[in-house]
Amino acid sequence: MASDEQSVRIDSWIWSVRLTKTRSLAGTACRAGHVRVNGERVKPAYAVRSGDEVRLRVGGRDRIVVVSRVVKKRVGAAVAAECFVDNSPPPPPREEIAQVAHRDRGAGRPTKRDRRDLERLRNG
Predict the structure, then answer these.
(1) Most-buried pick from 18, 42, 49, 117 (CB within 10 A)?
(2) Which InterPro entries match (predicted)?
């Protein structure tokens, strides 16, 4: 279940403590530069140790966690919560999340005028 090894791959650890749904997503986030350990961008094979600060951008939200225990295999949610200290800022309220533009069903494609209006709204 949990192991007390000195270090483990960052992509494996992120997946093991349930910060991402799959290990593949964790590796992709590392390669895209969305994972930082102690302020430095890291590759998926970077060895993370207890006490390291991991910053991860996942799902449009920044997660800041400090590694308190290194685990190699995926663990249950209760055990995963004990493996890191979450210092992330609270998520924004639901009212502040941008609303997606909605078109009526059957309205067809947006016209050039509609597109320009949308761009004007988005760019301020």
Answers:
(1) 42
(2) HSP15 (IPR025708), S4_RNA-bd (IPR002942), S4_RNA-bd_sf (IPR036986)
